[in-house]
Amino acid sequence: MDELKENPVALSQATLSELKGVDVPRYDRAGLTPGIVHIGLGNFHRAHQAWYLHRLMQEGLCHDWAIIGAGVRAGDAAQRERLLAQDCLTTLIELDPSGRSAEICGAMIDFLPVEPDNAALIARMAEPDVRIVSLTVTEGGYFIDPATGGFDAQHADIVHDAANPDAPRTAFGAMIAALARRRAAGHGAFTCQSCDNLQGNGAVLRQTIISLAALSDPELAAWIEAEASFPNSMVDCIVPATGPAEIALARGFGIDDAAPVTHENFRQWVIEDDFCAGRPDWDRVGATFSDRVHDFEMMKIRILNGGHQVIAGAGDLLGLETIAQTMAHDGIRGLLRKVVLDEIAPHVDPVPGMTPEAYLDLIERRFGNPEIRDTTRRVAFDGSSRQPGFIAPSIRNGLAAETPVEGLALVSALWARYCAGTREDGSVIEANDPNWELLNGTAKAAQKTPSSWLAMRQFYGDLADHARFADAFVHWLTAIYDDGVEATIAAYLKTA
């Protein structure tokens, strides 16, 4: 093993037998045939959905459900090169406080060319052997109007795809073009499966696909709505970004992998059983098929994803680099517990085997895992999607139920302070949101006029009109600038 660490084996199908102490595919990958095209080949998919399929394949099952990878952004081309060079194999490293382990996932067998018009992607999805097209394109990638929750038909990429349905820019336009070809050829539709952190992710995907299709071909839109399926699901696993440290971890196992993935020792996948063209039996390896996906995802999105937003900005402002470090900070850990118990959990129903309070205990342990180097910067990224998606719904519930919203107002104030672009020690926070220029300018203005932050209705809707929330926000943002982040959090923790 020491020799392998010093001279790691370049990962490929041909070198799997040289790896020692690592679980490798026991199935014949040359005999795998595709059933899934997955768009958005980031770390999460490879540690989550691909892993469930790999585990089925290890049991001799689902060898006709292999994954073909795809991407629609120019940057995906580099990922394609990395993965094709190692035969689409991925090293998965589990970071358990009791010890690390590694396995090689082989469920993916190809990665399509990344092209501006998505021609290769459309052609492959149009083939009848593809029965599921799944996506991880981030919660901000579904062309949702944050103020209304409806479809954003005015976005430039949507306008382009509506005018050029045969040469679309977006993943959704490509899916529609492929479905059009399948309809013309007499093939059935495929299941459209979102695996992103969105409440009602299947319903959101349906809205995007049907609305975009209707702009250019209403009859096709009606056919898709009748024939395709859009199962809702809840996905959960903490998967940090890959950098030099993660590549070094793989080398420690004797593996030279250009794109390894680290992950925590926890996974959950709850899926609505609505598949128009069949599916793998993921429940045999730990997934759950349930008609209560909404309740599971509500708990996860409000408490885990919302909890991440509670702590990430505050942590980065204080110079804490990782989520585990925020959980070791008494003030931030206290902030998370008080906000969740007082202001989020009252609006979350229990699910089989788990209450909201017990779920908070679970995520505190997960967030505090020192082996997971999940950065506050990564978790704070794209607040312009995550704050409206994960925090604002709890604010609205609290206003409607007349329960406290003071802590959630503080979380919004911390986001405003974060977007001003400097930490408490004066160091610069580099751009960390697709809308950073707008956020940064507004945050600087809000230092003098706090209410200007809530005036961004594209993110807050009408929340500025609710004095109970708006007044609390102004109070906390003023306190942050006057007294500092730690003192302001401490003051909140002393409130009843």
From TrEMBL:
Coiled coil: none annotated. SUPFAM superfamilies: 6-phosphogluconate dehydrogenase C-terminal domain-like, NAD(P)-binding Rossmann-fold domains. GO terms for molecular function: oxidoreductase activity, acting on the CH-OH group of donors, NAD or NADP as acceptor. Residues 35-283 form the Mannitol dehydrogenase N-terminal domain. The keyword Oxidoreductase applies. Pfam families: Mannitol_dh, Mannitol_dh_C. It comes from the Bacteria. Residues 293-480 form the Mannitol dehydrogenase C-terminal domain. Keywords: Oxidoreductase. This is Mannitol 2-dehydrogenase. The lineage of its organism: Bacteria, Pseudomonadati, Pseudomonadota, Alphaproteobacteria, Rhodobacterales.
